Amino acid sequence: MTGTDQHVQPKKKGLTRRQKRGVSRGVQYAVFVAAVIAFAVLADWDRLRNQFAQQDIAEQMFPDVITLALKNTVLYTVTGFAVGLALGMVIALMRLSSVGPYRWLAGVYIEIFRGLPALLIFIFIGVAVPLAFPGTEIPGGTYGKVALALGLVAAAYMAETIRAGIQAVPKGQMEAARSLGFSPARAMVSIIIPQAFRIILPPLTNELVLLFKDSSLVLFLGVTLEERELSKYGRDLASQTANSTPILVAGLCYLLVTIPLGFVVRRLEAKAQEAVK
């Protein structure tokens, strides 16, 4: 063995990339567990229970919290989604049109209504429209106003989603339809749009979840007792009882809808990924 060989030191092996990820994940779990333990130890559970979990107040909310507040919230959401979907489809087709002014108008609409907070849209519908058109009533009263406000907001996002879905359909589908004698309009309605909706169903369902939460802005339109949705109903009872239990119950009612919808979104996304594979 030469002198050179005697001075050669074996290389020290460091952690592999997989081991580093495991260490990082372990540290994150440890921090999370420590935060949960600290919260559980330091929180004043008696005060929290007295302020947010009064059983007698929660029992007084039923069945109205379901038959009135939750029902109105679902109704506002469904009608707003329907308006947004119909308007979004029109705007998406305008965005894809070969006519320049159509594309320009659609682009302006999308940029404006995606950039404005939903709160300002509700205020505009409730205040600006009656001032601009005295004596004009939106059909459906408060329900019509909410459907229009939510629809205007949702349409800007849905239009881009629908446009992306239409463009994701292979161009050969349109060419094949045209070779079979379909007009461009009929091919779009019968062939392209149905395929596009299968692609965009998960994001559309996610938009429904967002609209369900945005329906809480209805309070800025001025609603009657029979027109209150979950947030307004919970806030009114919290003020009357000087307790936050109604707000917690209203939040749980939101979760009764949003959690199943979130599960549906994940299932649809998984199926879409399987179809691509």
TrEMBL record:
Gene3D superfamilies to which the protein is assigned, alphabetical: MetI-like
Outline the extent of the ABC transmembrane type-1 domain.
Answer: 70-265
Region spans: Disordered? 1-20
Entry-linked Pfam families? BPD_transp_1
SUPFAM superfamilies recorded: MetI-like
Entry-linked PROSITE patterns: ABC_TM1 (PS50928)
Membrane-crossing ranges are 26-43, 74-94, 115-136, 142-159, 180-201, 247-265
Cite the record's Basic residues compositional bias ranges: 9-20
Q: What is its main location?
A: membrane
Q: Where in the cell is it found?
A: Cell membrane
Write the record's keywords in alphabetical order, separated by commas. Amino-acid transport, Cell membrane, Membrane, Transmembrane, Transmembrane helix, Transport
Q: What membrane topology does this protein have?
A: Multi-pass membrane protein
Query: Which family is annotated?
Result: Belongs to the binding-protein-dependent transport system permease family. HisMQ subfamily.
The identity of this protein, by name, is: Amino acid ABC transporter permease
What are the leading ranks of the lineage?
Bacteria, Bacillati, Actinomycetota, Actinomycetes, Kitasatosporales
